[in-house]
Amino acid sequence: MLILAKSILAMMIGFLASAILGLIILPILRRTKIRQNISKFVTMHSKKNGTPTMGGIIFILSTFFSILLLFLLGKIDVSYNIIIILFVFLSYALIGFLDDYLNIKRKNNTGLKKTQKLLLQILVSVVFYYLYTKGGGNSILDIHTLNIKIDLGIMFSGFILFLLVGTSNAVNITDGLDGLSGGLSLIAFLAFGMISWGASWVTGNQDIAVFCFILTGAILGFLLYNTHPAKMFMGDTGSLPLGATLASVAIITNHELTLVVVGGVFVIETLSVIIQIASIKIFKKKVFLMSPLHHHFEKLGWQETDIVKLFWVVGLISGMAAIIFGVWL
Q1: Which residue, 48, 83, 138, 194, shows the most beta carbons closer than 10 Å to its own?
Q2: Is the distance from CB of 132 to CB of 140 less than 8 angstroms?
Q3: Residue 46: DSSP 8-state
Q4: What's the CA gap between 89 and 270, in Å, rounded?
């Protein structure tokens, strides 16, 4: 019951901190003209041009200060694993911040170059791998359902890079409609919080569970300002750290494959982009009217809110399946 009480408290504090901070940050973003420049290729969103961006700073700061508050109150311990996760969380937030800043400064969507962004992500991945192994983390890929364990050895470092970069960019790709990426991320972290909570009696992942619930609450608070019609966007400042942190939680809790189930919609969105690019290059034809997939539905005439609801429902089903897959199977 203690972990349940901690989880509820964590989520509540994360939500309140985010909701209150949003009231402070939103006017600042408007006053300083930190606005989103909508891509010329997404003509149906032209009316959103000028919407404040970099709103991800709200749930980033809320999560950090909520953890600090609970630690000072003696409600949680800041474990080594939490420090590693916070390192990834804040590092990817900084990468996203730099990208957003350059976009705003140049008044276009040419922020960090792809090579620059990838190099920074590789650097964070290398440090994460070092800290992970130094803290006793193993290089074993554990497929719980099939009771199969594969020791990847040094190749695990490449696997970590793939997960961090892949998941961060998948969340970023999905961040194209009001509340879409935020809502799916909330579901994903809630699922991983419950997975960590359910497994905590065996693996001692209570600290990870509490972190996930804090971030869940913080994202919920952010959604007060991000759901349709969005008063602000999270930007790369928010989407990149959400994806990378989700991957780091999966790695530390040894549920890497569960990540695929939890982030089912993120995977589908990313695959739609890969399929579209491959089809155009090989067959000179489009598979989708536009990618990622949520834009395909928009081109079909769907309302933005209906697409978001559908994707949230699919995400929720994936999250529930992941809890079963990650805890009982």
Answers
A1: 194
A2: no
A3: G
A4: 21
Residue 13, CA distances (Å) to 77, 86, 304 in order: 16, 17, 31
How many angstroms separate the Cα of 278 from the Cα of each of 118, 168, 169, 274? Answer: 21, 21, 18, 6
Q: How many other CB atoms sit within 10 Å of the CB of residue 40? A: 9
- Domain range for 258 is 2-328
Residue-level pLDDT at 96: 95
Residue 23 backbone dihedrals phi, psi, to 5 degrees: -65, -25
* Contact call for residues 297 and 307 (beta carbons, < 8 A): yes
Residues in the chain, how many?
A: 329
Which runs of consecutive H residues, i.e. helices, occur in the chain? 2-31, 57-72, 80-106, 114-134, 155-174, 180-203, 206-226, 235-252, 258-262, 264-283, 293-299, 304-323
What does the pLDDT read at residue 145?
67
DSSP 150: E
The verdict on pTM exceeding 0.85 is yes
Task: State the total domains in the chain.
Answer: 1
**pLDDT < 70 positions in the chain:** 1-3, 38-46, 108-109, 144-146, 198-204, 326-329
Residue 79 CB-half CA count within 13 A: 16
What whole-number distance in Å separates Cα of residue 314 and Cα of residue 297? Answer: 15
- Give the closest residue to 292 by CA, choosing from 176, 187, 185: 176
Three-state SS for 35?
A: strand
